[in-house]
């Protein structure tokens, strides 16, 4: 019984860590973002590319080998989805790294002396006079 309490306690500690919660939020947002990019590619980009290429519909591009149908148009759409998602993630990471560099380069503000040190400095200066 005590082992299960220990296990449950460890699990509770693990699940309540910020890293796990951040990861879960990232996965959920990533799933929603993937749906947006898929819609962008399928509903906006591919029809425009199809018009430029003479009214071609990429989703129906395929060829047959024996009794199998190879849907290479769907593959082209998946590659475009991947490239867009990879580019957006690259831009986000680049922005975060840029902000981190700016924080590191910013000079640290000098700390104000403590009140007692400031008072002692004033007393010293008065004694010098």
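^ Assign residues to that structure.
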């Amino acid at each position: 019984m005590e082992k299960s309490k220990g296990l449950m306690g460890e699990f509770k500690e693990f699940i309540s860590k910020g890293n796990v919660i951040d990861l879960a939020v990232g996965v959920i947002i990533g799933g929603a973002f993937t749906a947006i990019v898929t819609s962008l590619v399928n509903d906006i980009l591919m029809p425009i590319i199809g018009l430029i290429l003479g009214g071609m519909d990429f989703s129906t591009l395929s060829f047959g080998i024996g009794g199998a149908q190879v849907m290479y148009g769907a593959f082209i759409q998946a590659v475009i989805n991947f490239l867009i998602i990879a580019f957006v993630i690259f831009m986000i990471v680049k922005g975060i790294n840029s902000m981190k560099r700016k924080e590191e380069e910013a000079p640290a503000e000098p700390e104000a002396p403590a009140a007692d040190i400031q008072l002692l400095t004033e007393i010293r200066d008065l004694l010098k006079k």
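The chain has a mean pLDDT of 81.
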